[in-house]
Amino acid sequence: MSYDFDWGMVAQFLPKFSTAVWVTIKVYLMAQVLSLTTAFLLSILGNSGAGGRVAERFLSGYSWMFRGLPELIVLLFCFLGLPQIGLRLSSIEAAVIGLALVASAYEYEILRGAFTAIPAQQYEAARALGFTVPKMYRRLILPQVIRVATPSLLTFACTSLKRTSVASAVAVVEIMGLTKRLIDALQKPFELMLIAMLLYAALSSTIMLLQFFARRHLEAYSRT
Question: Is there a smaller number of Cβ atoms within 10 Å at the N or the C end of the chain?
Fold first, then answer.
């Protein structure tokens, strides 16, 4: 059975995805900023020992729970579950918060590992020199942590773009959301899925290119 591929349809509908591409980029960037900020704060809290055992158990539970849950479940909970307790979120807000919660758990583990790579003698030396805790982290600890964690964080950032496709489940009209709507309306899944694949490949390639240059810059900085 032959299939007549409609190239004209691809050419016609590809420009119509511009808004969906922008929504995908926006959700991705907002989730990345929120997740990285959360992961940094949690990793500093865990490394500093502030809060004692209570904080330690909270961080362990947070990491365990959100690394164990599928993104789809978390997004649906944010979009459908939270309104039941009076916290209403738009579809984009639910997608951003849900994706950030899951991503921050993984990024927290990456940063926690980077903190353990810093020798204990450096903390002792900073205290001996009279550094305050904020100054010690800002001037001595965090620059080293960032250098150690950056390769793993960049790799995770590349995979995070693909996870934005689950935002379509909470009515976000990003690339996958628009693709599903057009498939339902036009019954042309092959052509429309090809458009989605091309767009995701282009966005992922852009991030991977940025990752390549960032790694080269980091390697050059480490050598000097």
Answer: N
